[in-house]
Design brief:
By secondary structure, this protein is an alpha/beta fold. The protein binds 2-acetamido-2-deoxy-beta-D-glucopyranose.
Length: 291
């Protein structure tokens, strides 16, 4: 009898150790459910999934023993690239719900201890974002929020020639001419997704403000989108071809280049570390949950 009791006691103690370890490392051990909101659950009959739809399914997640939800972008976005071209980082896309819906969802998740991780797209935004519009007009400090470069020259038809041979992952040159500013802007992905200048202190501060905004709403973590693409060579050097015999620049795609200047640059680690330190400040303030 006594030995069974101590065995049970041992199991209970063992279990408590796991749970308490879990509290600090939840993001390493928890079972995550990824939700693409538009196709998950429609609560208002408009044919598009929404935040209230997720809230209606919380019992279902509980039954499945899901610890945390990972939401793909719900921000005000252009429809280009399915939410990954963000117009405003602190607004909810209207067809997915309202800020109140978001707050209600996170509050109800808290009752059962569920965590919320949100997608965070900081390599680029939408060309419809107010920051980009101000950047085109060279309004300070937004003029330096993106990566602008002069044309290398003009061809005989007067068409501007891109600064180098860098290609977009989605096809074509990574440089898009802007007629108003009379410069090229850089985009790793679509031409409607200008890359942020992540070396700019003001841009970094905007990103930190966004992190702060969502942590204050109760968000527990961020899934960082496309970090491999955050930085590019400051000298804007051409990337070498995989097959040097393929010289016709018109045929060359992203897949033909060796990405020594636009992909997986060292500064990524420093920047992520900077965001980690920034987020740690909130962990100290709210000692209960690690973010
Ligand atoms: C985003 O929306 C908020 C709230 O509506 C507004 O205050 C802010 O200026 C907007 N930011 C941008 C970059 O459009």
């Amino acid at each position: 009898m006594k030995s069974i009791f101590s065995l049970i006691n041992g199991i209970i103690i063992f279990f408590m150790v796991i749970v308490s370890a879990d509290k600090n490392n939840w993001w390493k051990n928890s079972i995550l459910y990824e939700i693409f909101i538009r196709s998950f659950k429609d609560s208002d009959g408009d044919g598009i999934g929404d935040l209230n739809g997720i809230r209606m399914k919380l019992d279902y997640f509980h039954e499945l023993k899901i610890d945390s939800l990972y939401l793909t972008p719900f921000y005000k976005s252009s429809l280009f690239d399915m939410g990954y071209a963000i117009i405003n980082y602190t607004e909810i896309h209207s067809s997915l719900g309202s800020m109140e819906d978001f707050e209600n969802l996170i509050r109800e998740m808290e009752y059962t201890g569920m965590k919320m991780i949100i997608d965070f797209v900081i390599n680029h935004c939408s060309d419809e974002n107010e920051w980009f519009q101000k950047s085109i007009d060279k309004i300070k400090p937004y003029d330096e929020y993106f990566i602008w470069k002069n044309a290398k020259g003009f061809n005989k038809d007067g068409k501007p020639i891109p600064p180098n041979n860098w290609k977009s992952v989605f096809g074509g040159s990574a440089w898009q001419w802007n007629f108003k500013r009379k410069q090229f802007y850089f985009h790793q992905f679509g031409r409607k997704q200008p890359d942020f200048n992540l070396r700019n202190v003001n841009v970094k501060n905007e990103i930190k403000k966004i992190i702060e905004f969502w942590i204050e709403k109760g968000v527990h973590g961020f899934r960082i989108d496309a970090p491999q693409f955050f930085f590019e060579d400051e000298q804007f050097r051409d990337e070498p071809l995989k097959n040097p015999r393929k010289q016709n620049t018109r045929d060359i795609t992203w897949f033909d280049l060796i990405h020594i200047y636009t992909f997986e640059q060292k500064e990524i680690y420093e920047f992520i570390h900077e965001l980690r330190l920034f987020t740690d400040q909130f962990n100290k303030k709210n000692s209960g949950i690690e973010r």
